[in-house]
Structures are given as structure tokens and as C-alpha cells.
Amino acid sequence: MSGHAADFQYEIYLNGMTGAVPRLPTDLTRLAELTEQRLGSGPVGYVAGGAGDGSTDRANRAALDRLRIVPRVLRDVHARDLSVHVLGRTLPAPVALAPIGVLSILHPEAEGAAARAAAARGVPYIHSSAASTPIEQVAEALGDAERWFQLYWSKDREVTRSFLTRARDTGFTVLFVTLDTPLLAWRPRDLDQAYLPFLRGVGTANYFTDPAFQAGLARPVHEDPDAAVMHFIGLFSDPSNTWPDLAFLRENWDGPIVLKGVLHPDDARAAADAGMDGVVVSNHGGRQVAGAIGAADALPAVVDAVGDRLDILFDSGVRSGADIAKVLALGARAVLIGRPYAYGLALDGQAGVDHVIRCLLAELDLTLALSGHATPATFTAADLRREGDR
Ligand SMILES: Cc1cc2nc3c(=O)[nH]c(=O)nc-3n(C[C@H](O)[C@H](O)[C@H](O)COP(=O)(O)O)c2cc1C
Ligand SMILES: O=C(O)C(=O)c1ccccc1
């Protein structure tokens, strides 16, 4: 990245000299309501919805809102650098796009558009097992950018082995294993509309193109697509897995492995003991356990438990550069962005995802600078107060 991420701010003001304003709001919390207005209720409900009564989503926001920054002054922040070291590589900024499956319910260009936007800004894109675009096509869209893959750990070990082989052969280097979705949660918004993308043939692209998956079908996908969908639903995740099963993944993947969906410090310790490289502290954006702890409330105990043994990443509820700054201060090395980029995609395709990335990085840069920090490294828990604490 040349210059500072915050240069985007002046670019917007300069464009304003000719009367132009941004095509999308720069307060990303407004993207959800715009998407609600413009998109069909099935797709937008699926993306916006949460588990149960939505209390986990609210807990995510409350946990972040309670954290307050105590800015410092007169600390020379003219030369700044957002880059970080994480999972053995240097990233231009402590941000990646979270794995989100089924993006074609939001925009016809789907994962390809999100991947191209991320690649153009040097932000890693995490390709979901449940994407609507096969991994080989997304690899092409990513060009020479970082390729990270998210695994839903299938009941069929041959499918998992085949996914890992395809990921490796197409240049993916980091594996995220999502552990908070052994079953799909109780999601009233989807239930009340009887809307599930897979039953409409979305989110199965990696499976339907997979030789090991196809080998489990009585008839080819195109001859009996309904049977193929049912087969996918039967095997997409395996609720019988336990910690010793991680050895299978370690044997079949050479690069870093990150466990996504860890909230308890004992699980983080178990991840380190199992030879994993990182964890994502996440409650899946409030979509899995209703009543779960806000992700930012879970982060400090995980950092205390394994901060010196694992790279700790974070997601769930992040909507601004200030939110990113707060979780970095608590000890996360990088933050995954979920729904905001999905809404950007829904509203304006690749340009919408680019807008979201640029807004977040610009605001992160400005938040750190205005708080007295030229790099994320010097901004720590000592720069935060939790409202209510003394
Ligand atoms: C529509 C949708 C689909 C998702 N699909 C996946 C997925 O395929 N794999 C996965 O690990 N997480 C998935 N997630 C969870 C995200 O990776 C991430 O944990 C979550 O969106 C972060 O919360 P946020 O949306 O509040 O930022 C999905 C989230 C949404 C909103
Ligand atoms: O909807 C989700 O949150 C999710 O993670 C998922 C699960 C299965 C397939 C696609 C997405």
C-alpha cells in the first residue's frame, strides 16, 4: 500500500470538488439497512439473521461498545504503518475477509468479486467450503494474493482429504477449520421463511465439482440434483469429531492451521497442545449459539491463556476501524470482517467490497493515529477502559 490508508479520506473530499459523493455510506453500520431495503427477504434474512432471539449478535456489539479508547497526544504519528506479522506472513494491514459461503444469493459475481476486491488491496480472502464458486475459480480471481481456505470438516474423510488436496494444488496456504458449526443452529428468521440457500442449490459448488463427493452419489449431480443436495446436507459437517481427530488434519495439511470459533480459554489451550497455529475468537457473528458470550468479552481470557503460543485472530460484530483497533489492543493479531463486506457486495459488487475494505482501513489508521499510535503494535489493553470498570 502506498501512502497511508487514511489517504482515502482526502480522495473522497477531493472527488467532492466535482460534486461526487461516495456511492455507499462510509458509516458501515448503515449498509445492513440499505441491503434490507434493496434485496429479497430470503437472502437478506439469511445474511443478517442470527441464532435464536439474536442476543449473541447484540452481545457482540455491547462488548465492543463497552470498550473505550483513552487517546494520547503529542506522540509523532506522521509516519504510520498498519502492517502486521501473522501466521508466518506479513500483511499490509491486520484485516482479512471472513469465510462467507453462498455469496451468489447477494450478487451474481459472488466470491469472484469479493476475492478480486481483497486481492487488489492485499487483504487475504478466506474461501469458504460452502461457497457458490469452486475453489479453482476463486484461486484464479486471487492472482498472486494470499490464498486462505476455510474447511467445513465433512463426515466423509475422503471429501475432506480431497478438499485439502484441491486447496493445496491451487496454491492455498493457510487452513481455517470452523468448529462452531457441527450443526446449523436454530435461526428463526430463516425458519419462518423456510429459506435455506443449499436447498435452492447454492453453496454446494466445491462439493458438486469434487470427485470424492461425486463418488458417494448413486447418480451424477446433473441427473439428480436434489439427491446431491441431500447428500451434501448429510455430510457437510461432522458432530462426532473430538480433539484427537485434529491429527487427521495435521497429517493432511502442511501449512498453518487455525481453529475458527473458539471462545473458552481451555479450548484455546487444547488447540495449542494439538499443534495448531492459531485460533479465531469468534461466535460466528452470533449465528450459532444463542445466548453466547460477546466475542470481545471472550478475547482477553484467550489471550491470557495462549497469547504466547498461538496467533489469535478475531471476528464477530466488527463494523468499524475503531472496533478493529479495540480488538487489536486486546491482543488479537488480525481481524476478520464478516457481514460488512457481504453487504458491500450485495449493494455494489466488487466496488462495494473495495469500499468496505478502504473505509475500514482508513478509519483504523485514523483511530490509531488520533489515539497516539503509529503502528498497531504499540496500542495495547493499557489504552482501553471497559465502561463500568474503574
Ligand atoms: C451469510 C454468512 C455465511 C457464513 N458462512 C460461513 C462459512 O461458510 N464458513 C465459516 O467459517 N463462517 C461463515 N460465516 C461466519 C463468518 O466467517 C464470520 O465468523 C462472521 O460473519 C463474523 O461476524 P460478523 O458478520 O458480525 O462480522 C458466515 C457468516 C455469514 C453472515
Ligand atoms: O450460515 C452460516 O453461518 C454458515 O456458516 C454456513 C453453514 C453452512 C453452509 C454455508 C454457510
UniProtKB/TrEMBL annotation:
Give the FMN hydroxy acid dehydrogenase domain ranges: 20-389
Q: Which SUPFAM superfamilies match?
A: FMN-linked oxidoreductases
Residues given in the record as FMN binding sites: P99, I100, G101, S128, Q150, T178, S282, D315, S316, G317, V318, R319, G338, R339
What PROSITE patterns does the record tag this protein with? FMN_HYDROXY_ACID_DH_1 (PS00557), FMN_HYDROXY_ACID_DH_2 (PS51349)
Q: Which residues bind glyoxylate?
A: Y46, Y152, R187, K260, H284, R287
Which keywords does this Swiss-Prot/TrEMBL entry list?
Flavoprotein, FMN, Monooxygenase, Oxidoreductase
Q: Which InterPro entries match?
A: Aldolase_TIM, Alpha-hydoxy_acid_DH_FMN, FMN-dep_DH, FMN_HAD, FMN_hydac_DH_AS
Q: Where is the active site?
A: H284 (proton acceptor)
Q: Name one GO molecular function term.
A: FMN binding
User: In its UniProt entry, what is this protein called?
Assistant: Lactate 2-monooxygenase
Source species: Streptomyces uncialis
Q: What does the record give as the organism's lineage?
A: Bacteria, Bacillati, Actinomycetota, Actinomycetes, Kitasatosporales
